[in-house]
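Q: what sequence does this backbone want?
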């Protein structure tokens, strides 16, 4: 039919006054334009009808995978295949007179078909990743890196096929010649190869998940992992900036993952106050009477006094000398108070590590460390709880006849000189 139409149009142009050669060239051009217009119209009709039917089907469907495929334009690109295959089936017969142009048009359509197939496969792979992300387990085992690896392989193979079409050679011949460029390819895809290996180790060792809070000072990262790709891991920092970390750095360098803290249900409070050691002393009866008025340790003071009195009597201790036997100290009562105070706070975990302890004395005094866990993990609320605790601790220290150590300021020195 194409041949009959071409001969008819050529004869018509010759009758119109054109010579043989221009008439044949113009005929081939008109046939090509007509074929392209017809393919375009067919493509538009198929997409309009297909999308109309597909939208109704998707609305009736209870699954979400078809919605994701539609959003990633998978079906739209599949529709393009029909007119392409039809055009390809007649492309080698379009030019009746200039037959050598048939191979050129066929090659161009084949290249377009390869590109279209790559786009379709990429849309499908993106949809697979998006569907996988809808499952809870996707945070523990991201597959984006594997998807990107497959995409690189497909695109590389597509490039080889396109080159083979241009050169008119078999793809196997092109592949055989790539051995000479292996070193160059290793350099080009170095990050991709390292990222692929790193992605496998990250996944199987469960080192990082989407949503984990990690700290990696070398790259300025201190925030939540938002994306784990083939070559990079993206972290949204606490100040909303984005840090990009090479995937292989996650397995080759040190970083801190706060997931354990989040899963434990508590967030550690570990802070010390320094007590001036000159203020530490035995607690006499007057001091104990004052401390016994503190509601949180009233029972502790009374019970401890009975215990120490019995011990001293049983061991015949001379109580007239302070250093003999066992006696309460203001620092010991203060530690007991901190224990009682923290246990009374509902925001503090009692089932996790709970310590109020002395550390090694330093030139700055005796450190009293609070080592407990807050039930609240959210940063702002956690900081408020921690501040409330130490507001109270710093304010209550003088009530135990203790003093906080701090280096003298210029004002302190001036007052001492003027005294």
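A:
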């Amino acid at each position: 039919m194409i041949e009959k139409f071409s001969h008819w149009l050529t004869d018509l142009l010759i009758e119109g006054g054109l010579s043989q050669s221009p008439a044949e060239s113009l005929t081939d051009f008109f046939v090509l334009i007509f074929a392209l217009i017809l393919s375009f119209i067919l493509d538009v009709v198929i997409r309009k009808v297909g999308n109309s039917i597909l939208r109704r089907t998707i609305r009736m469907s209870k699954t979400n995978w078809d919605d994701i495929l539609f959003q990633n334009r998978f079906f739209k690109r599949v529709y393009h295949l029909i007119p392409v295959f039809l055009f390809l089936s007649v492309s080698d017969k379009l030019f009746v007179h200039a037959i050598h142009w048939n191979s050129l048009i066929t090659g161009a359509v084949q290249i377009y078909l390869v590109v279209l197939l790559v786009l379709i496969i990429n849309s499908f792979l993106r949809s697979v990743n998006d569907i996988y992300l809808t499952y809870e387990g996707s945070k523990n085992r991201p597959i984006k890196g594997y998807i990107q690896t497959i995409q690189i392989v497909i695109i590389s193979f597509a490039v080889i096929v396109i080159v083979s079409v241009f050169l008119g050679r078999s793809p196997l011949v092109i592949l055989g010649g790539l051995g000479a460029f292996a070193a160059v390819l290793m350099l080009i895809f170095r990050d991709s190869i390292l990222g692929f290996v790193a992605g496998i180790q990250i996944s199987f060792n469960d080192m990082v998940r989407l949503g984990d809070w990690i700290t990696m000072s070398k790259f300025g990262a201190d925030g939540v992992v938002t994306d784990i790709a083939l070559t990079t891991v993206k972290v949204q920092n606490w100040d909303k900036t984005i840090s990009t970390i090479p995937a292989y750095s996650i397995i080759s360098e040190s970083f801190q993952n706060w997931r354990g803290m989040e899963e434990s249900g508590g967030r550690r409070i570990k802070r010390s106050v320094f007590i001036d050691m000159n203020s530490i002393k035995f607690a006499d009866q007057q001091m104990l009477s004052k401390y016994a008025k503190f509601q949180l340790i009233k029972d502790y003071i009374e019970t401890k006094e009975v215990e120490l009195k019995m011990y001293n009597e049983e061991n015949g201790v001379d109580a007239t000398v302070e250093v003999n036997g066992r006696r309460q100290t203001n620092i010991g009562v203060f530690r007991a108070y901190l224990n009682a105070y923290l246990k009374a706070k509902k925001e503090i975990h009692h089932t996790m590590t709970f310590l109020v302890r002395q550390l090694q004395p330093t030139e700055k005094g005796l450190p009293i460390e609070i080592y407990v866990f807050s039930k609240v993990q959210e940063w702002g609320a956690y900081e408020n709880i921690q501040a409330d605790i130490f507001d109270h601790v710093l304010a209550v220290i003088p009530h135990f006849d203790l003093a906080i150590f701090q280096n003298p300021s210029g004002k302190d020195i001036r007052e001492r000189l003027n005294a």
